[in-house]
Amino acid sequence: MRRLIAITLLLGIALLSLLFYASSDSGAFSETLPTLFIGGGVLGVALLGLLGWRLWWLQKRIRRGVFGAKLTLKLLMMFGVVATLPGLVVYGASVFFLNRSIETWFDVRVDNALTSGVNLGQAALDDLLRELDKKAQRMALTLSDEGVGSVITSLSTLREQSAVQELTLFDDRGGVIAHISGERGTLLPVLPERSVLWQVRQQKPYSRIEEVADRGLIMRVIVPVYTGSLTGETRVLQLVQPVPAGLARDAQAVQLAYQEYQQIAVSRLGLKRIYGVALTLTLMLALLMTLVIAYLLSERLGAPLRSLARGTRAVAKGDFSQMPMVKSRDELGVLIQSFNRMTRQLSDAREQVAQNHQQTEQAKAFLERVLANLSSGVVVLDEALRVRTMNSAAAQILGVTAAALDAHHLAELGQPDEALHAFGTTVAARFAEHEGEWQEQIDYAGPGGSQSLLLRGTRLPPGVERGYVLVFDDVTKLIDAERNAAWSEVARRLAHEIKNPLTPIQLSAERIARKLNGRLETADAEFLARATQTIVNQVAAMKSMVDAFANYARMPRARLDAVDLNALVREVLALYDAKALGLQLQLDDDLPRIAGDTTLLRQVIHNLLQNAQDALTGHPAPTVEVSTRLKNRVVYLTVTDNGAGFPEHLMTRLFEPYATTKAKGTGLGLAIVKKIVEEHHGKIQIENLKSGGAVIRIELPVFAATGEQT
């Protein structure tokens, strides 16, 4: 493309040079003018098409949103205006002065001066010619009486007297009778035409100024010479006198100028048009070449800015590898160098930030992994006690999702009647009461049941963001384990310390009864019998209670195997009166086998049914529903009754030994059930129904063969 533009510009410069050169030579100008005009027109059309094509391409780039295209167009317009305005001014001035100068060529004074010059030269020549004619007339009179023998002598004398260069005498047939010339004359006379001789013999003298080859401008006068003889022969005398050299030269110059002036005057309008077209063509080619050069300069000036813009866009997108090449040492070059230096600094800074970010992310990921694997719940609060972040253990313990508490104030957690709201209010109050660390154990009745939470709160240390950290643990299992261990220890001590003395007490009471039998009066004997029987019965009851506690303490480890829970439920239910209990079964037919111990699970089902049966004693329409179902690889065993339910004050202590609603009993039933369920890696939940009654729900894992996942 640039080569084509360069070739076009060179052709334009060459054409203008030829036009200027031809205008200095009128002949060459008139000959080459059509060719130059045609070539200029073709070149102008080519330049116009080239410029139009580049402008169309530039407009297309502007529509595509190419950066720098608008700047190139703006620079092109600026260069075009800078080039066009002076060009139009020069063109207008040139046209004005051209018209004025051409008009001055044909001014009346110039025309009169040229005419006067021609007339003046002509008058001078006419005077010389009239003088020569007078001389010729006198010579003709003198020669009229001369004979043939004295003609030559007379001609010589007359030439010398009149200072004429040549004298020639012709007869009536045009033959030369005599020829006399001066030193500068020629040997041969200038012969007149026959028509001239005939004219002279008709008494019409001939006088002319003529231009003869090799002799220049001459004056020729031919007059008749009449003889006095009877023959009546008419001779002809010719006088030839050269026009003075200076006068001839001046006359010819004036005449030539006058002729050229007349020719130009005739073509004055055409000359104006020719020069106007030539000037217009020159202006058009100059402007088009200027605009093409302006386009190239605009492209060249805009190229560094486009490179800089590409680099800026790349930096904005995060790509710091785009660094424009520095090709100049001007301000643009300095700007590009500064941009490249800034880009390198940004690249280094980004790498440093990326390294720091990576280290931060690694530390954050490490901390998140640590927090995620902590069994303790961790909640980070801001200065206003709003939740900033919490780990999965905290969400799991509270029974909520982490996103549900994000940016919430502690006092605004949950609904007013929910345990979560009470939890948030309690923690907010403790942070308000304590400036430093604090610790407290609370009961939390969440969705997963009653839980014992150990709370520890503290303010973040100086140097980090202001706020608080709350750490809490679900110590329910720990407390249950401690309680179970304590009850096991109590059971062992009961078995060891209480059961051993009971047998001697019973034996002693029986011996007293036998020894005193028949020795006492009737009233005393009856009293003794009642007393000894009471002692024996109470000792037996205490033995039974001690055995129960001993069994609780000596609970065997579960031997897990694949168990058909539905079959086990049906087997146990066969021992009960289904009609008396109002028994309803809803067993899942597609229930998989569970991992359990048949003996221990049979005891669990017995205890649950026995509790339901005891709760429904005296109920007019007892109903017990036993159901099984599978959900998320977990088997649920549910026992529901429509009895009075469990007392609310015992809901948190139902799984403790000796927590019972019965008048008689040790309260070990649910404690044993819970212990057996935990031995099976399951869970147990108790809930009172709003419609009356209670529901006990047990979760047991599905049996998995070796190598399988449960």
Written description of the protein model:
With 710 residues, the protein is α+β, with helices and mostly antiparallel strands. It contains 18 helices and 17 strands. A five-stranded antiparallel beta sheet has the order 2-1-5-4-3, with helices on both faces. β1 (166-170) and β2 form a beta hairpin. α1 (2-23) packs antiparallel against α2, α2 (26-64) runs parallel beside α8 and α15 (565-573) packs across α17. The longest helix is centred in the middle third of the chain and has 49 residues, at 268-316. The radius of gyration is 72 Å and the shape is rod-shaped. The two termini are 75 Å apart. The model is unreliable at 706-710 (pLDDT under 50).
Name some characteristics of this structure.
710 residues; alpha+beta; five-stranded antiparallel sheet; 17 strands; disordered C terminus
Characterize this entry briefly.
The protein is an alpha+beta fold and 710 residues long. It has 18 helices and 17 strands. The protein is 57% helix and 16% strand.
Biggest sheet details: 5 strands, antiparallel
Q: Beta-sheet strand percentage?
A: 15-25%
- Average pLDDT, rounded to a whole number, is 76
Helix/strand structural class: alpha+beta
Q: Give the beta-strand count.
A: 17
Share of helix, binned: 55-70%
Q: For the CA atoms, what is the radius of gyration?
A: 72 Å
Please tally the helical runs, counting DSSP H or I stretches of 4 or more residues: 18
